[in-house]
Structure formats: C-alpha cells, structure tokens
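From the methods appendix. Each design record in this collection lists the tokenized structure first, followed by the designed amino acid sequence. Records were kept in a plain field format so they could be parsed without special tools. The example shown here is representative of the layout used throughout.

RECORD:
FOLD TOKENS (137 positions):
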C-alpha cells in the first residue's frame, strides 16, 4: 500500500512540476511579445515649423514606446497634426492610428506630444487621448 501511495505522490509532484514549467515558459513567451510597429506609415502633412527629420525623430520615439505595449496592438499610422495643433512653438503632436486586438477595433483618438530638449533631442511629454492635449486638439 505504501508503494502505491509513494508512486501516486511522485506522479502528482511530477505533474505539478510539469504544469508549473509550462506556465513559467508560457508567461515568459507572452512577456517577450511586443506590439507590432513593423509597417507604420507616417503622414508628414505640411509644416512651416518642423522638418521631416523632426517628425521622423518623434516617430522613432513613438514606435519605440509603442513596441513596449501589449502584443495585441498594431501601430498602423502616425499622423503629424500640423503646426496649429500645439499652442506654442515647442510642441509636436503625432496622432496614433492602431489596431487593438483586445477590442477588435482600430483606435484613432490617441497621440503623442513631444517637445525639444535643450540638447536638441526630442522627448515624449505624453501619450494620451488627443482631447486631453489642450484646446487646439
């Protein structure tokens, strides 16, 4: 009887370890999956204030941040909102158009606000709903 009991305990432990390993490896794989930014189209619009290089630098920051988001998101487009969307000369706004696999919808009401640093580099100020960025949005 003890022999059967020992085998059942050993089998239960082995099964528990196997389930634990599967959960650990599955979790690690999910953690390493990132949002897709591989085919982002950029709409540069027209600007008297910013160059294409400025918009590209901000787009690179946006893609880098977005790639750290959930793997069920696909960034499709970044749209420069124009010079009039920022009340001051120190702000560039890119609207995000992305597919959200969690809700099976394309989302268009979020964007990034960037500002230039004293070192000449661009920095992300915010990623939020466009309506939260001020009166001009």
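DESIGN:
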């Amino acid at each position: 009887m003890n022999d059967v009991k020992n085998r059942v305990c050993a089998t239960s432990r082995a099964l528990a370890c196997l389930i634990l390993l599967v959960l650990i490896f599955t979790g690690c794989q999910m953690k390493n999956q990132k949002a897709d930014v591989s085919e982002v189209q950029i709409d540069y619009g027209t600007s008297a204030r910013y160059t294409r290089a400025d918009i590209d630098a901000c787009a690179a920051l946006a893609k880098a941040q977005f790639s750290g988001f959930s793997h069920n998101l696909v960034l499709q487009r970044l749209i420069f909102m124009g010079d009039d969307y920022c009340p001051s000369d120190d702000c560039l706004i890119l609207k995000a158009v992305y597919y959200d696999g969690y809700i099976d919808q394309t989302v268009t009401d979020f964007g990034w606000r960037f500002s230039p640093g004293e070192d000449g580099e661009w920095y992300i100020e915010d990623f939020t709903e466009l309506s939260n960025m001020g009166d001009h949005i």
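APPENDIX NOTE: The two ends are 76 Å apart (CA to CA).
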